[in-house]
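yo

u said u wanted the structure for the complex thing, so here. seqs first:
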Amino acid sequence: MKYDELDGPVGKGIAGVMDAGAGYCDARYYAEDGSETLVMYDGNLESNSSSFESGLGVRVLYGGAWGFAATSRGSDVAQAFDKALANAKTAAMLVSVPLDMGVRPGVKGSYSSPVQKDPFDVPLQEKLGFLASMDERLKADFVQRRVVFLYLQRMRNRFWNSEGSIIDRNLVNCFANAIIMAQDSDGQMQRRSKSLHTTGTGTRGWEMVTDPDLWSGRFEGMKEELSQLLSAPELAFGRRSVILLPGQGHLQVHETIGHPLELDRILGYELSFAGGSFVTLDSFGKLRYGSDKLSVSAYGSIENSPGTFGFDDEGTPERDYLLIDKGLLVNCLTSRAMISEANQAAGRRVFESSGGASRSTAFHKAPIDRMTNVNVLPGGDGTLEDIVATTEDGVILDNPTSWSIGSNREHFHFGCEIAWEVKGGKVTRVLKNPTYRGHTLDFYSKLSAVGDRSTWVVEQVPNCGKGEPNQVMEIGHGVPVMRFDDVIAGEER
Amino acid sequence: MLDETTRDAILRVRDEAADKGIDAFFVMHREKSHLMRIGNNSVSLNTSVDLTRLDVEVIDGRREGSYTVMGDITGPESVRSALDAAVEKASLSAPKDYDPISPAVQGNAEEMLQYDEALEEMDSRDKAVVYREIIEGSGKGLNHSGSWSSGSTEVLLACTGNGNLAWRIGTDQQFSCVLKHPKEKWELASFQTGWRAGDVKAGATLAAFDRLLPVYEKPGFRVEPGEYTVIFGSQALAEIVGMALGTGFGGRGYEEGMNWTCGSGVGDRILSEKVTLVDDPDDNDTFRFGFDMAGMTRSRFPLVERGVMKSLLYDLATAARYGRRPTPHHGSVSVVMAPGDGPECPLEAVKKMGRVLFIPALHYTHIPNRSKGIFTGSSRFSAVLVEDGEMVRPIFSSRITDTFQNVLGNIAALAPWRASVNGSSTYGRRMPEAASVPGYMVSTGVRISDCAESF
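structre next:
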């Protein structure tokens, strides 16, 4: 259906539920939620799939409680409003803290991802030809497995709410990854991989995928590193410095800064699935999250990341602000209803306004507090080489193979693809099977070096899971090279 | 249920495609899902969705393409449109260097063994009533959270290779309630599962909390890293078994040298002789599907018998590539672990074992080294320190980093009864899945690698 055809029925639906006593209502119609997945495995196209979703999701706040309903049937618009209202009325049977969206003027606007070449306008054969050429470049005598992966998204949706907002969004995301694998001298499979990143500026269409500086330019280096891993010794257990390249640092930030700073987690709305947070409402303005080298922003005015979307799913424009300022926790990832509840619970105004972080992954999922772009700001400790030069005993780590985080995000364990040993300020050799672990606040307090802008890239996360019903969200993280001291790395025998 | 128009539309387009010689496979998926979420003693979300999806997969020689649509799928035009998209994708695709295996509906099926209309149409007010009873009946001053997902899943499979039609409708539900201390942050949890409207009972959750609340009034215990005897509850056991199967028994990983089982073969002893695992689609403690999502007929399928590896799982793509026979494991599986001969009560099983950790559930497990079978995850809900068979104190969030071979190899006791553990996710389409495992497992020499100073 076209948007204009829905303006009337949706407007009528919103008016109906507001007349019935609702405090707020919004609706999102996805004219298109399309994706294409292409996977080449050892040169064989093992996935060549596309999907298309279309439908309407309606959210109603009644008596301080949320009801939501969605339908993929165009004929069911009125029923979706009725069902969402009925669900909200039922939810209102059991409310201890009534939710409140506050009062905001309606917003009329639109946002489109900056794109030179829409990936869905690129002929399939051209994409497959490109994929085959990427696969060809991954070949080497010792490489036993090659995987080239493309995941493309295009979403066109309209948002309406009871404040008169109407917002259109056209979002495009391109994700790519290349993996090579081979068995090492102990018969264990080792791997190196490279996913498509952005620089933070520019466009995010097909041109991003084909830009060698953002992806394929690393393939030769990957092959060399994999060949070294095949005869490398294992990282020995012990305390040492760890230097995280952005390929690993972004996931460290994602799991131990991003997730603990989602306000719904802090308030206890994720306990039955994703978990809570060690952060409390008393922490803001008081908690030392890390050393004074740690400054973290939300959104970050990044032009071309999957965490950049113009307006969130409550109609709030994306906002650039600090989460951590020189080590001090100052803010978190917020939505309108959550800041209202947080301020009520704290008995003071902890948060001034929504951080524009209310996001939904599809028309059939209700929005929840999500990351946008959560970024560590570049520091003043120079290049990777500069940081290595001032490291006495450490390892450089890249790309996650495993991640496991405590339920309140207070501790973590990561496995990585590769480690480079650093002794006396010099890189000495490659080590395999690296792991490291730590406790979040202690770990960030030992942040001793932050690379400059030359080390900073925006890594894309296509698959952040959270919420019930579960939702997979696309996110970005701008991160520089970071060094942490006195970290337990490797496994005890 | 799918109306006749939709069913007829699929069959009509299937027949048209067959007449044109198109090798196509159709999966229609309809879900009516409801979820109530609880947070801070309130309903934080009450949501209903009614969604219909159609997957069409086309094989054109060595080329493949697939297309999924969710939207208005009400007539032959929409089915035809999805078929055309899949045909086009296949025609433009790059050929493989092996012959793909076409999915085919192996037999006619009409299944509604686990369907309860009362659950499908359950009034969400009934859920609010149950949660209210739990909130009012346990833990004054504590925070209750949870979720209760329920609904129906209907699938219809057809292919152009034959005239068979496989149809199933079933209901399922997954209930959780988490009790959290607002300051200490400890968490107790209760999980329930089933496919009938009356399967979830407030009393069961209240009783579970009542058993543990006195222990949780005591200060938390920080577990020093080292080796411990651990009682794994059914949730933790199902997770460990599921990950062990996923990283050890997949045919692709085995053929390509990635699995922790790669040093062994079918017929080799790989785990404790107390471990017997089957995929049993007739087990009523799991969600029963008589066919998988590639149309293959399912039956009892041995995986491990008294510690000996019996078989590997091959999806169509892997089987085609490596010249193996595919196994019926596309979609929901029904992992059943045989019970043991330990005492009814896990505390009785460790009465003479001194200091033991009781870890009912694991949080955020992952695989740092698949080749070695190393997994890591942390304790979460309801974990306690046990001394001489008595629960004495709650334990802080503790990390286990160990191997499947060790944890499932050094089993001191297994419960003589089984528990159904719901493993369904709500990330994608509704596809209920449950495992049936012993109510507890006692393993010795389990490595605790880290412990927080809080819950």
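Chain A has a mean pLDDT of 96. Chain A touches chain B through 85 residues (CB under 8 Å).
cya
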